[in-house]
Every structure is written in structure tokens, then in C-alpha cells.
Write a structure and sequence with these properties.
It contains six helices and 17 strands. The protein has 293 residues and is α/β, with parallel strands linked by helices. The protein has an eight-stranded mixed sheet with strand order 1-16-17-15-12-9-10-11. A five-stranded mixed sheet has the order 2-3-4-5-6, with no helix packed on it. A two-stranded antiparallel sheet has the order 7-8. The chain is globular and about 55 Å long. The chain starts with a strand and ends with a strand.
């Protein structure tokens, strides 16, 4: 398992009874987590002295309960990225901290390439880019980034994060677009990228009502993205929270769609976050990685 254990501003304090107790900077939240199917003693005081608790409804959805939690606050990561956080839309805060383990991975690849070829532009495409954690990481490592998401609000949020991270003038293209249609247009234009990152949803709709169902759409989409990889591309990353896309499935798709045409190494694994009170690891989905030999 790949573990995101380099955070200082974030930690999972404890997990029990379908929920996780988290510290986001100086604030403590309790949020649902479907992976937490165990019932362990809730000894941490944060279970009672929280700032925000998302209560899931038996009818679907739910609502937040707040105690001295600001409307918005910030945390930062070791690479210099700064994230604006706010509780919204179901249980989310605008950041998936477990992705930091992937940020560290591709950032090291970009930095190594920049050291070897300092004048060579490294172009990275971030698809389903959400609030821009991967975009910031790639830009801070020295890449030129194209950030694509179907939600105008998420792209605006990502821009705010970039400005707070000192990336106001960085070479980042911000695009509100359906990812599949954008990739098809880029293929027709003949554009190429040295790295591709994608974090596709299980289900979603594009700005024009385009329907995305991951089980039907993901493999054809990976094959499309292969056409955008440059001849000396550096990496490709796929992240998934969908139960059916286990590490072995991700490896099979990447080997079939990418590695046959771009020699390199393929590895997939679960990603997770350390739990402070137990010393155990909370699983948080899976990632598949291809990198050039």
C-alpha cells in the first residue's frame, strides 16, 4: 500500500462505526467513511469535542453539525501547496489528503527530469482535476499544467488554491470542459503531454449533460489518452475510489492500453492514510501508475 504519511496539517485521529475523526489544521471533523466497518472504542476526546460532524441520513444525503467552525480555512502541504477548505456537498471539504502520496510520486519524476533537462518544458494534463491538488503539485515541481474539470465552481476553487500557493503567474491552463470531449479535440489538434493524471468519478455528467459511467467509459478513455502521450512521456496516473477498480484491474488496463506502446513500468496498489490512535492504515481507494523506463 502507498501511504500518504507526509502531512503536518492533516491527520486521521481515529476511526470507528462508519466514521473517521480527522484533524484539518486546528479543526476537528467527523465524517462518514464506507471503509470503516469496524466498531472500536471511541477513546479520543475529539469524538465529543468536534468542530464539524457530518450526519448521514438513512434516506440518503445528510447534514453538517457545526461547533465553532469557520466558513472557510486553510491548510498547507510540504511542497508549498495551500488549500482553501470548506464543508460542502455531502461530506466533502474540497481536498482528498490521501492523494498526497501520488503528488509526491509524480513530483519527484518531474523534478528529476527538470534537473536533467532544465530548459525542456514538461507538459502535464490533469483530468477530472477537482480543486487542483495534483495541478498545484505538478506546477510547483516545474511542469506546465492543463487543468480540466466539468465544474466551473471547482475550477474557480482550484484557481484560488493556486493563487494562495504562489502560483498566480504559473503556466496553468484552466478549462471548464467535458474531459472526454477535450481529449478528443486535443488528439485532433495533435497536442501531446509528458504526463497525464486522471481521477475519474464513478458517475458524472459533463457541462453539456454528457454521461460518464466508469465501468463503461474508463478503458476506452485510457486508450484515448494514450494518443496524447508524447514519444518520451514520463508518467501516467489513474486514481479510483470505485470498488470494482481494484489494483489488479488498473494494472491490466494500463498494461493493455499504455505499456504496449510506451515501454515502462506499471504498478498499482491501494492508497491509504495512517491512523494516529491505532497505528493502522485507513484504505482510501487505489491508484495505477505507469512511468517511463
Amino acid at each position: 500500500m502507498w501511504i500518504a504519511d507526509n502531512w503536518k496539517d492533516y491527520e486521521v485521529l481515529d476511526t470507528s462505526s462508519g466514521e473517521k475523526l480527522e484533524r484539518w489544521g486546528e479543526y476537528t471533523l467527523i465524517r462518514p467513511d464506507p471503509q470503516v466497518i469496524w466498531n472500536t472504542d471511541k477513546k479520543n476526546a475529539g469524538w465529543k469535542n468536534f468542530n464539524g460532524h457530518y450526519h448521514r441520513s438513512n434516506k440518503g444525503g445528510g447534514e453538517w453539525e457545526f461547533k465553532n467552525l469557520p466558513d472557510e480555512w486553510e491548510i498547507s502541504y510540504k511542497n508549498g501547496a495551500v488549500f482553501h477548505l470548506k464543508p460542502f456537498a455531502f461530506k466533502h471539504t474540497g481536498l482528498f489528503p490521501e492523494q498526497a502520496v501520488n503528488w509526491d510520486w509524480f513530483s519527484s519524476i518531474i523534478k528529476k527530469e527538470k534537473e536533467t533537462h532544465p530548459d525542456k518544458p514538461i507538459k502535464v494534463l490533469n483530468l477530472f482535476a477537482y480543486t487542483g491538488g495534483a495541478t498545484l503539485a505538478a506546477a510547483l515541481a516545474g511542469a506546465e499544467v492543463t487543468h480540466v474539470d466539468a465544474s466551473k465552481g471547482m475550477v474557480g476553487w482550484a484557481k484560488e488554491n493556486a493563487i494562495s500557493s504562489g502560483l498566480r503567474d504559473a503556466k496553468i491552463r484552466w478549462l471548464v470542459d467535458d474531459c472526454k470531449k477535450f481529449v478528443e479535440r486535443e488528439i485532433r489538434r495533435g497536442n501531446k503531454y509528458d504526463g497525464i493524471i486522471m481521477d475519474p468519478p464513478s458517475y458524472g455528467r459533463g457541462p453539456g449533460g454528457e454521461v460518464w459511467k466508469i465501468e463503461e467509459s474508463i478503458f476506452p478513455f485510457i486508450k484515448l489518452c494514450e494518443e496524447l502521450l508524447s514519444g518520451d512521456a514520463l508518467f501516467l496516473l489513474i486514481n479510483s475510489y470505485t470498488t470494482g477498480l481494484q489494483p489488479a484491474v488498473l494494472t491490466y488496463m494500463i498494461e493493455s492500453a499504455i505499456a504496449l506502446k510506451h515501454p515502462g513500468s506499471v504498478r498499482s496498489d491501494e492508497i491509504g492514510l495512517p491512523v494516529t490512535d491505532t497505528g493502522l492504515i485507513l484504505p482510501c481507494g487505489a491508484s495505477g501508475r505507469w512511468m517511463r523506463k
